[in-house]
Amino acid sequence: MGTLYLVRHGQASFGADDYDQLSELGRRQSVRLGEYFAERGIRFDGLIAGTLRRHKQTLEGILEGMNHAGEPLSWEGLNEYDSEAVIATVHEGKLAKPTSPELYRHHFRLLRDGLARWMAGATSPRGMPSYTDFVAGVAGALDHVRANHYGQNVLVVTSGGPISTAVGHVLGTKPEVTIDLNMRIRNTAITEFAFTPKRHMLVGFNAVPHLDAPQYKDWVTYA
Predict the structure, then answer these.
(1) Is the Cβ–Cβ distance between 119 and 180 less than 8 Å?
(2) Which one of 71, 97, 156, 182 has the minimum C-beta count within 10 Å?
(3) Which class in CATH covers the domain with range 2-81+129-219?
(4) 186 closest CA partner among 3, 62, 5, 10
């Protein structure tokens, strides 16, 4: 039996011109997660990350917190969908930067609608793969882990979309359930699978045990 830890990236720069960049809090979350792994004696035989900047920065922070060196395997199939392209399929023009709770809610309502249509094959967001190909990219990473890391601990750093897709793929959930999972994944949250050469089994979802202490109560974020 092996163990796969799927970790969502640290807080990025939601609403900024460049979202694909960890905030200062996002970096601290990442280092803290690495410290948590080290405190519990968890080491990794395999490191895999999407190719986005926030994935790489999160993994760097985790390794710093663990005082651990390693060269990750880059996996494009673990990259997030383009939320702006998804929203553009259901909303004309560029959205205003979300500066209020209502604008945040409006943004995510549009995102949910756009995701549902993309997943149903009703739209083709610009520059994005079909949803079938998106799932295949995530499933390919799971297949790689099973084929190459049986009996080992593997860390994968990615985004909420691929993590919810991995859970949905393993459990066989409906698309709307996958969307619900996606919307609730916290920054640097751990989703854990046990795996054999034949299959993955969900052990835990969206856990932030490294942020349980009172001094970290303001570190729990979703974007």
Answers:
(1) no
(2) 71
(3) alpha beta
(4) 10
Give the SS3 label for residue 200. strand
Q: 199 φ, ψ to 5°?
A: -160, 165
Residues 47, 59 contacting (CB under 8 angstroms): yes
Beta bridge partners, 69, equal none
> Which of 111, 116, 110, 158 shows the shortest CA–CA distance to 137?
158
CA angle centred on 130, ends 127 and 135, rounded to 5°: 120
Its pTM stands at 0.94
Q: Whose CA is closest to 189, among 23, 20, 58, 42?
A: 58
Average of per-residue pLDDT across 100-111:
87
The residue type of 2 is: G
* Span(s) in the chain for CATH 3.40.50.1240: 2-81+129-219
Pairing label, strands 2-8, 153-158: parallel
> What is the tens place of the pLDDT at every residue in 82-105?
999 999 999 987 777 777 788 888
